[in-house]
Design goal:
The protein is α+β, with helices and mostly antiparallel strands and 152 residues long. The chain has one domain. It is built from five helices and six strands. It has a six-stranded antiparallel beta sheet with strand order 4-2-1-3-5-6. Helix 4 crosses helix 5.
Amino acid sequence: MNHSPEVIQSSIGWVYVLENKAMPGLVKIGFTTGCPIKRAKALSSPSGIPSPFILVEGSKVYCARRVEAMAHKMLAMFRVDASREFFKVTSSKAVEVIRLADILVCEDVERESPELFDLVFSTYGVMKWPTCINPGPSMPGVSVPRFFGGSA
């Protein structure tokens, strides 16, 4: 298995939850290697979108594509359309599922390659303690989620 910094870094990304007041009752769960706030703005820019997407939370995780895919699978019965990333769940349920998916993926990585797990966790600080963007009423802030004993 290739444990080069480039390969490890390319697997780190953000899994996020977005809401849009024009789509009540729906959330978008996606992933990006860039900033989730910028991703929300990019998705909001087409003229066919009546109101902007709002970032509910973004979690920086290892194996972001796997975490996103697992969250989508866990919420499959709530998916609006198989070709879209929109789900009929509350934003808090979506965040809870993403955190669970991250834990399950971390366990898989640790089982598959304990040395990779230790390397990623010690070098990049992701895995057991994801970095989250949890926007408050004013500006987004970085916090450790409540699930892990933080204050977010």
